[in-house]
Every structure is written in structure tokens, then in C-alpha cells.
Amino acid sequence: MQVMAHTYRSLGEIDKADPLMQQVVEIQDTLSIPLAEKAEAYNIRGLILRDKGDFDEAEKAMDQAVTLFQKAGESDTEEYSKLLADLAYVKRINANYDEALSMVQEAINIKENIHNRTHLQLAEPYYILASILRKQDNYEQAKINQFKSLDILQANINGPHPGKANNFNNLAIIYKEQDSLVKAGEHYQRSLAMSEKLYGPSHPEIVTVSSNFSNILLKQGKINSAKTMIKRALQITRNELGKTHPTMGQHLSDYAYIFRSKKQYSKADSLYDQALHILKKHYPDNHPRIVGVLHNKAENAYRSGQIEQAETLFRKVLSIRTERYDSSSEDIQIPLQQLLDILESKGNIQEADSLRNIFSSTQ
């Protein structure tokens, strides 16, 4: 049953893999089998839940796998270090950054004790470490570790490789956050060119880079080029994954941003609603992707003068994000400031001050 679940996962048939692996875990919990075997089952279960986008449950399953590996006395193995790195990435998504950082650093230490520091096995944990540091706004350290991952891959593998393309993409994200738009564009181009060599021009792997690149083009004022890029991502997703795939929802939100930048707010709002309709078929209402689109919809409403709708949406975004993020993070501070601006513009100074004090006291 476990082999079948693993096979379904490798084929991308997550809905078939999930119930099978759940049964495996439940059965193994009643049996007297080696703890390491139970740990592996929880690990696979966590990976399947991660693939489904159920990151909270994935974190719980993988935490249990860590505990079982430790009880089994196998906390210095390659398998355990891989679990730590995978769990660190899930914790990063769940905004548990300190735990994520500690885990991926432990994974790196274990791997460095097993291999030399330029071994191929170190590329992935350095990649994950960089992504965590980036989320903590530590861009210089993120860049250093992103280049470590890339350098290891380039030293061990000739020619195009998915890991290299992903590193170029993430370096572009870092440069974008540092407002180095030219360098960001260059790295997106390298990522896109390598992805096209690896997968061809119409593969789903192309769409994320295309979408990210379109955001850079927008910031550079190249609206028509950005529109062409995101329309390409939409077409590939629709043709290869289907019009109700969650990726379609994300790209519709990106497409809406183009119309928002052109002050076509009604068209943008319609696209945000389409994106939400798709995403809600796949994720719970508090999922980061859904909340991200709600935030974009709120900003669109604010810019178009629909202040009451914007206020309602900003409140909703804040109420959900406060359960996941620290109050000092920009995921909280940006919508908070937008809501405060609305309240103050309406003369609700007392409520604005009260909100400001509440969020200041929780930092």
C-alpha cells in the first residue's frame, strides 16, 4: 500500500496517494514495527500533504517523523537530514522561520559530516536556507547561500539542470526585493532560457518564471511585454494542467495586476474573483494563496475608490494573517498600514490608534 501511494505521488496523482498513505500510517501505529519504518511512513504522508497544499497537516506529520527518527537513534543519517530540509521548507511556508532556520542548518551540518562541503547533496539544503533567509528579509545572506547552491550544482553537473534554473529564479527574486531590477531581469531570463531547454517552450515548469518575469517587466513600465509574458503562462497552464488548476488561479491574479496598473479596475476585479473561485476549490479559506489574492483585490478596490469594500477586505486579510505571521512582518504591516490610512481618512482616529497600539504591543 505504501509503495502504491508513493507511486501515485510520483505520477502526480496526489488525490489517490493521500488516502492510501493515511491508511498506512493508521495501520502502522497499531503495529510493533521498527520506529524508523514508522518515521518513513509519516515522512511520505507529510510530503503528500505538502504536495496537496495542506501545509499545516504536512508540518504535523513531518514533525512526528522527526520525533520517531530521534527515538530510533537515527538522527545522523542522510535520510534524517533530508527530512529536516523538507520540513524546514514546510515550516518556512507556514512562517515558522526560526524553527525552519534551525532545522535546515542542522540538515546542512549532518550532510557536511557525511560528505565534503561541495557535494551535490548540499545543493538543496543551501537552496532552502536561502529561501528562509529571504523571507526574513536577510537578502545578503540569502544571496550568499543561493549562490552556494548554484555553485555546487555547476561544479557537479554539466549543462542545464532544474536546480540551476530554480536558483536563477530565486536570485532574481532577491534582486527584485533589493530593487535591482536589471539584475533581476537578467536572472529571470537565464532561468527561463534554461527551463525552455529542459522542458520545451510549453511545459508547466515554464509558467512560474514567466509570471515572475512579468512582474519585473511591469515595474520597468514594460506593460505590453509583461502582458505577453503572463498570457503565455495562462495559455500553458490552461492547455497542460486545465482551466481549474490552482496554478491557473495564481496566474489570473498576476494578470489582474496588469489591468490594475492600467487603471482598468473593473477588469482587474473580475479576474481576482475568477482567481479566488479557482483557488477556493483547492485550498481552505485561510490558505496563503487565497489571502494573497484577497489582499490584491483589496488594493484594487482602494485604488478604484471603493473604500468600504477595501476596508472589509483589509480587515479580513489581517484577521487571517495574524494567526500565521508575526506582527512585525510585512505580511501584516502592509495591509495594516493600508487599513489605518482608510480609517484615518474617514476620521476614525480612535480606532486607528487602537489598532496601531494592539499591533505594536505584539511585536
Automatic annotation (TrEMBL):
It holds the Pfam family TPR_12. This is Uncharacterized protein. PANTHER family: NEPHROCYSTIN-3, TETRATRICOPEPTIDE REPEAT PROTEIN (AFU_ORTHOLOGUE AFUA_6G03870). The keyword Transcription does not apply. The keyword Repeat applies. Transmembrane segments: none annotated. TPR repeats lie at residues 39-72. Keywords: Repeat, TPR repeat. Gene3D superfamilies: Tetratricopeptide repeat domain (1.25.40.10).
